[in-house]
């Protein structure tokens, strides 16, 4: 069991891990966008608004699952860096059991409160009914999503970026094939989209567990004597990572509720951008999942200079990627408006984002990076702090001021300013943290 990231060119590792992870994410994000496109063909503006409301709640469960997978990747990469396969096998079994139980309880809780959650977001009438029908089908499958993502985390911790990519590609493929069948051929509409997503999660879990159990033999049955120890070690990293990731959906929910005051068209435009953004900036989301194992293995091997190199190389990647993505959005702006039959506030919001406000994702990418490093350098409290800062102090007042100044577009201007401020602060702290690690070695 080799710690492959402790040698070789760091920027090469960053690019390899990120682009392979990005391919899988692109398939999932593209399916989400195609979902929105298929549903827009049904001709109900309330459908797009319903996806926006439901998406805010699903983003909460997704972010919770991402936090658990980040914790999983971090502790497993540390174990791999230490080189004890037996301990790693037991750890993986104990962690997967913990994730299953945790997400099952959360899924039950969220399903029980779907209606008040939607009402709190401002959903009403037909949009409320459609969002409710969608959520009660897809929410119970949250444990499947969490286990699939945890399997991806284990594969990335092993350095098996291609297999982690295939896991998400498989989910995207299954969803893409079943979506038009269930939405149109069977005639289930938005409920068909939910069923397709659930079956895609089943496929991802089957593939991920097969790889971990059969191919790598890296899963032992949960060991009750080590379960408590591993539970504590895992949640020491996973709990702050979960809190870090939950901050984002809190901010998203606040923005959705703020948009709701301008009507279904504004909510629909925000929902379309909510599906478009992760697709356009998939490389930045993939980077945040990829640098963790690189930093984690080098932390385990005490090669702190390579951690600093990971930070600087990642910033270079973010800069180049953001330039390409923003240019592509500017060129495709009118086509996006036409494809989704957007008008009114929805059209205005999409055009403003594509023609310049999309640059906020350069700053979001910096925050994604620094949070991923904090989570894997045993400083997860910093990631939690900065993500909550971004979702509250640097989102809520800026969104409210922007709404008063310029309506739906003003909200996005406020988000841009807030993202820039918190990114700069987080980057400064990350440099200082890694500098201190290097100084302990030199002294």
Would you kindly provide a written description of the structure presented here, covering whatever features stand out?
This protein is an all-alpha fold. It has one domain. Helix content is 86%, strand content 0%. It has 16 helices and no strands. It has helices at 10-40, 45-82, 85-112, 114-121, 125-138, 142-157, 161-185, 190-215, 224-260, 264-280, 282-300, 304-339, 345-354, 360-376, 380-391, 396-442. The longest helix has 47 residues, at 396-442. It starts with 9 loop residues before the first helix and ends with a helix. The model has no long low-confidence stretch (mean pLDDT 85). It holds the Pfam family MatE. InterPro entries: MATE_fam (IPR002528), MATE_MepA_subfamily (IPR051327), MdtK-like (IPR048279). It is a multi-pass membrane protein.
Radius of gyration: 21 Å
Total number of domains: 1
- Percent helix among the residues? over 70%
Spans of 5+ residues with little confidence (pLDDT < 50)?
none
- Global morphology: globular
Instruction: List SSEs in N-to-C order.
Output: HHHHHHHHHHHHHHHH
Number of E-type strands: 0
Q: Which strand-content bin applies to the residues?
A: under 5%
Spatial separation of the terminal alpha carbons: 31 Å
Total number of helices: 16
Give the overall pLDDT as a whole number: 85
Give the structural class: mainly alpha
Give the biggest sheet. Answer: none
